[in-house]
# Entry
Amino acid sequence: MDPHLLTTFVTVARHGSFSAAASELGYTQSAISQQIAALETDLGLPLLRRRPVEPTPAGRRLLEHAGPLLLRLRAARADVLRAAAGPRHRLRLAATPLALGPAVAARLAAARSREPRLDLRLHTCRRDQVAAMVAEGRAELGLIDGLVAPNDPLRLPDAGPMSATGVTEEELVVVLPAGHPLAGRAALRLADLVDARWLQTPLCPLARLRDLVGEGFAAGMEYDGDDVHTVLNLAAAGHGLTLLPASAVRPAGGESRGAGVRGVAVAAPRLVHRVELLHAALPPGPAAGLAAALAGREEEGASHPA
# Structure
């Protein structure tokens, strides 16, 4: 399949419109129609219904493959260009919102103090976007986080060949309103909270909790953002419980960040908040030095292929 035709198909399906796809890709609407027709001829199957514009069953199946295929092509292009490029002091770091905790931020500050010429731009986004930015060369390094058993690697999106190194693991806490009957406990078992109302957020996806603990964990409210203070305020107001790394709730030696919440340690199952560093092959230079600093120069982070 021609990747240009595949890109056109994905764009039309995303917009549900031939004219909108033409505007985005810089073609005429007639050219878009011809490209879709050529792809359908190649496969011998109709891929899009025209009124309304939506994928056929065959088109939906193709969409499942198209995203990873096109990402791999962009990743291959970026890898070739990266290998030919020289060291750069202007770098971009993509990170999920909870990946840059106190320990990682301190390592980043130390790295910048050792390399004063380093011009770093930080971009926060969701996990699949971090992996895509690194794979496509739009970011030299990425930091992602998630809930796992101790020393288990994170499950990564399929975004092409890259290395993943464990950076930190931190205690998780259940975030409850300060007046909650369980707020005074020293620790809580998640199995005892499956019938409670929870916040559905990108910071703590309930599907992941169900994978790790079992069924239950009904959503009391869905919040599609990634602002930690908003999550703490929602929990304080009783909209639902959530899990966060301890440092996001209570700084070392300090009170809880959010007014009216308490963070209670998780007794079982044994889970941690893990942060991993993603990068493609890095030649010696500032990017490789920053990667070593984020991974901890005095530590041996376990690496695994993504």
Residues 159 and 208 are 20 Å apart (CA to CA). DSSP finds ten helices and 13 strands in the chain.
